[in-house]
Amino acid sequence: MTDTETRLKALMLRGLDGDTAAYREGLALLGVRLRAYFMRRMSGAPGDVEDLVQETLLAVHLKRSTWDSAQSFTAWAHAVARYKLIDHWRRRKIRQTLPLEDHVDFLADDAPDPGVALELDRALASLPQRQRMLVSDVKLTGLSLAEAGARAGISEGAAKVALHRALKALAERMRRADG
After folding, report:
1. Are 137 and 127 in contact (CB under 8 A)?
2. How many helices (H) and strands (E) does the chain have?
3. Alpha-carbon distances of 91 from 30, 62, 84, 100, 147, rounded to whole Å
4. Which residues, other chains included, contact 77 with Cβ-Cβ below 8 Å and sequence gap of 6+?
5. For the chain, N or C: smaller number of CB within 10 Å?
6. Per-residue DSSP letters for 82-135?
7. Which residues lie below 8 Å from residue 126, measured CB to CB, with a gap of 6+?
8. What is the dihedral of CA 5, 8, 9, 12, to 10 degrees?
């Protein structure tokens, strides 16, 4: 148990027993921790930090009877804070993203089998140039059918048909490679 946990838990227990000064001190200490927590997560909106701190402190006050004193107080308070932050993001329609670099190890496990990648490269190479270019532009690069068609010098409709045929041919070649 950390010093902060020990101190906060003791203050909150005393506060629940009616010690107003201890309760006020506990909320003040928790407020400092909450500010730091929200500042790390709300770097783009520092004005919202104080609102979140106040909302969380109010929720802690209103829901204090749900805290099991046999459990960690800081873990319970952190959960309340996290839910308040998520509610804030939902109200503001904010989608929080995490840097991809944080998940490199996790993603590495899902890396494609090099043998499959080689077979796919071979299958792509066997397609006519226009079809290969359409597959690359639309499926790998992310261009729209209209953009890929313009690059290939054909209409969007023709690009759609050619892409469909190319994907069908690729699927057939990959099935034969597996069989």
Report:
1. no
2. 9, 0
3. 24, 21, 10, 25, 36
4. 8, 30, 33, 34, 56, 60
5. C
6. HHHHHHHHHHHT------GGGGHHHHHTTPPPHHHHHHHHHHHHTS-HHHHHHH
7. 173
8. -160
> DSSP code of 71?
S
pLDDT, tens only, 18-77: 999 999 999 999 999 999 888 888 876 777 889 999 999 999 999 998 989 899 899 999
If we measure between CA atoms, which residue out of 59, 84, 85, 78 comes closest to residue 2? 78
Domains of the chain: 3-92 (1.10.1740.10), 112-178 (1.10.10.10)
Gap between the Cα atoms of 3 and 39, Å rounded = 22
Are 138 and 163 in contact, with CB atoms under 8 Å apart? Answer: yes
Q: What is the pLDDT of residues 74-106, one digit of tens each?
A: 999 999 999 998 888 888 776 656 565 554 444
Q: What is the dihedral sign for C-alpha 76, 102, 144, 170?
A: negative
d(CA 21, CA 27): 10
The CA distance from 28 to 59, in Å, is 14
- Gap between the Cα atoms of 62 and 110, Å rounded: 45
